[in-house]
């Protein structure tokens, strides 16, 4: 027996509806047989109330992509006769098919999607008025939310910069001098609800050291019995380093004595997009699990060839069992 669809908001808690209303007897008992949203719901055995399971939070943003883009959840509920033993396989009066349509609520804060964080930019002292300095982009995980941006200048930044917006991108332009901070606020609006996320763009007049996309460092795992010069990084976890000047960048892996590692080597790929270089990590010789250490705590140093400006970040290598 298929019951009419029920719409449920992702922020709903407690009792949602009852399947009892659709039936003609008070002598029935109900058990949840299956749900395509695992662990999300419970059914009261006597009342037939369908509730969000205790401690569970429905999540439209997590569920729908995992459910092939569908908001439809299928519950099957077995109806038993209360005068018969509940655990008897004979005791099935009918099986109810209940679809729950999960609806999106504007419950997620907007996010800035720029890959390098913190948001750093440079501008030259003699930059022409209204030359572009930086763009910060925002989006919102909620389906129908509209993101709008606004800005606040810290100190006298407004004397030197102007911010323009196109859709959810803030374009910052100089009009003159020094380290200045501009806060960009992304506000998502869906109906009456809205949330705000703030991001600070720090603009420095002059040069800036190179920036790694993972400021807190990289962790990679690799296996023993590798080939010589085997690449550890993959297309998914390549390292990225940005030059602000711009300049070419070379990388050195340093061991615990701050000497170039004899085992690991980091290489920048030849070309860059917008002064962002991809980099890969290689193992230079065959590593043996029984003979060699399993954890290597290293430092990755990036140096610009034109400016000799350097930055370092942590590099942890693990050989799992
Ligand atoms: Ca949502
Ligand atoms: Ca939102």
Strand-helix topology:
Layout (H helix, E strand, L loop, with lengths): L5 E4 L5 E4 L9 E8 L5 E3 L5 E4 L7 H7 L5 E10 L12 E10 L7 E2 L6 E5 L10 E6 L6 E8 L7 E6 L2 E6 L5 E11 L2 E13 L5 E2 L5 E4 L8 E2 L7 E4 L6 E6 L9 E10 L2 E8 L11 E10 L5 E9 L3
Parallel strand pairs: 1-7, 9-15, 17-24
Antiparallel strand pairs: 2-5, 3-6, 4-5, 6-7, 8-10, 10-13, 11-14, 12-13, 14-15, 16-19, 18-22, 19-22, 20-23, 21-22, 23-24
One calcium ion (CA) binds next to loops.
Description of the molecule:
It is a single chain. The radius of gyration is 29 Å and the shape is flat. The strands form six sheets. Strands 16, 18, 19, 21 and 22 form a five-stranded antiparallel β-sheet that branches. It has three domains: 6-103, Cadherins (Immunoglobulin-like); 111-205, Cadherins (Immunoglobulin-like, Sandwich), CATH 2.60.40.60; 211-318, Cadherins (Immunoglobulin-like, Sandwich). It has one helix at residues 60-66, and strands at residues 6-9, 15-18, 28-35, 41-43, 49-52, 72-81, 94-103, 111-112, 119-123, 134-139, 146-153, 161-166, 169-174, 180-190, 193-205, 211-212, 218-221, 230-231, 239-242, 249-254, 264-273, 276-283, 295-304, 310-318. It has 321 residues and is an all-beta fold. Helix content is 2%, strand content 48%. 24% of the residues are buried. The protein starts with 5 loop residues before the first strand and ends with a strand. Bound molecules: calcium ion (CA) (2 copies). InterPro entries: Cadherin-domain_protein, Cadherin-like_dom, Cadherin-like_sf.
């Amino acid at each position: 027996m298929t019951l009419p669809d029920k719409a449920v908001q992702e922020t709903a808690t407690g009792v949602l509806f009852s399947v009892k209303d659709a039936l003609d007897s008070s002598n029935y008992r109900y058990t949840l047989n299956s749900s395509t949203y695992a662990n999300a719901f419970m059914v009261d055995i006597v009342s037939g109330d369908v509730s969000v399971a205790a401690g569970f939070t429905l999540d439209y943003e997590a569920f729908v992509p995992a459910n092939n883009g569908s908001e439809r959840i299928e519950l099957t509920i077995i109806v038993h006769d209360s005068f018969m033993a509940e655990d008897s396989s004979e005791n099935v009066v009918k099986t109810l098919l209940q679809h729950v349509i999960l609806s999106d609520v504007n419950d997620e804060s907007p996010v800035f999607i720029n890959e390098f964080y913190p948001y750093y930019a440079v501008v030259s002292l003699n930059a022409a008025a209204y030359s572009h300095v930086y763009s910060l982009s925002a989006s919102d995980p909620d389906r129908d939310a509209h993101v709008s941006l606004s800005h606040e200048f810290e100190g006298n930044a407004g004397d030197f910069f102007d911010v323009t917006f196109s859709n959810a991108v803030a374009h910052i332009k100089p009009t003159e001098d020094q380290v200045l901070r501009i806060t960009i606020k992304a506000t998502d609006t869906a109906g009456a609800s809205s949330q705000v996320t703030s991001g600070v763009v720090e603009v420095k007049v002059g040069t800036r050291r190179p920036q790694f996309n993972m400021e807190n460092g990289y962790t990679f795992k690799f296996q023993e019995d590798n080939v010589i010069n085997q690449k550890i990084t993959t297309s998914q976890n390549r390292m990225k380093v940005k030059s602000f000047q711009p300049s070419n960048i070379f990388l050195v892996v340093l061991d615990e004595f701050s000497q170039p590692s004899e085992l690991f080597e980091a290489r920048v790929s030849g070309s860059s997009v917008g002064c962002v270089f991809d980099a890969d990590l290689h193992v230079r010789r065959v590593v043996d699990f029984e003979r060699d250490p399993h954890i290597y705590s290293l430092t990755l140093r990036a140096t610009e060839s034109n400016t000799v400006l350097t930055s370092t970040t942590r590099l942890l290598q693990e050989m799992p069992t």
